[in-house]
Amino acid sequence: MLPQPVLIVIVQYVIQALMAMVIMLILRKFYRQYQNEFYRFWSISWLALFVTMIGSCIALANAFLLPLDHPFRLLVSVITLYAGFLQIAWLYAGTREISRTTKVDKSKMRAFLLVAVPICATLVIIQYDDPNAGDYRIFYRVGIKSLLAGGVFVTCALMLKKISKAGIGIRFIIFSFILYGLMQLNYFVVTLCEINNIPYGAELPFFMGAFELFLQSLMGLGMIISVLEIEQHNLKKANIELDTFLYRSSHDLRAPLTTISGIISMIKGTDDQKKIDEYHEAIQSRIDQVDNVIRDIITLRKGQKSDLRLIEINLEDEIKKEFEHLIDPNVKYPALHVKSNRKPIIRTDPARLHTVLTNILSNAIKYHDLEGDNPKISVQISCVDDGIDFSITDNGQGIDQRHLPKIFDMFFRASQTSQGTGLGLYLVRDAIDNLKGTIGVKSEKGKGTTFDIHLPNL
Q1: Beta bridge partners of 440
Q2: Pick the CATH number of 4-237 from 2.50.20, 1.20.1070, 3.30.70, 1.10.357
Q3: Each residue of 353-383: pLDDT tens digit?
């Protein structure tokens, strides 16, 4: 029979485990609905906490029921410690994702998860059979993990503080992360003092108490609220874009039709065949304009509603093929130069990749200064661990700095004389978002533009 204080602690662990499972299921549901990576990362961290707490229950019971060197007791300790490392790693990955700092390198993540296995096994095995080394075992198995956890939680809080216009959910998370991190660091100090016989004023039964349960509850509540706030913001943004879309598309469709109506009236009032031919060309131009708007609307609709169809694509070959389709051999066009560090194979959706390449390359061709020195489009491709980084650079007209923050907005045109629909780069951003990638732009008026794109393997 286990002592009553031990049973109380086990009940606390079970409550924490059940809470972790509930929060994990909620975040998992959000991920399946909204497909934001940090929901998945955070849900995995809560699953790891669930395993940690269940393992802690079993380990605590084993301490009274099994000998020190029993294999099952050691195995449970290794699994519990490793789950704690997993919780820290996935929490950090999710926080990096939501704070929009550099993405977590998946190869480094895998390396950490692999290296953590022998580290956990070593920490558990050290002095595992010495009946007089209980404080040391707690230091190795709890203290060191607490030091790492404390540092990671405080670091995550500092990353979240960089989020502009953080809502109440993010503030809850920051507050709980800081206190939880400090509490974990306190655990480390307690265990360190114990092995050095230094009075500290805190007893080891303080582990996993009611305050920790409160902070974990606050963490979970903050994460759920932040998800709702983020999706509410996205919904408002979508509604604004819808209003803009309806207004601008109706305007862009009506304007050329009004012009065509006026030209037809002019045709009726003349017998001059030369003028009639000019009017016919003007009508055809306006029809092409309407067709471009309709085509972009269809592309946007397909991109938002269709599922991803994933195949392996040679990006270098795809870029060259798209370029060949866009150029007119009878018209002067810039030269294309493509460089890659190795064969750039990526698993992605071909339709959305086509949208990205067609719009960026067509802009590079359309707005190029063909009378300038050595007009060219340069593509640099780098194969990285989780996908491909590539840049498309032209030495054309460039974009005014004041327009750069808006070029991916729906219907934005950098100049009133632009012949485009204003949807091209919006479609590019939408396609890249669907492909879980990122895009950035650098440009200088009169010198050219560079689009930097990262696409992950899906």
Answers
A1: 452
A2: 1.20.1070
A3: 888 998 888 888 877 766 666 778 888 988 8
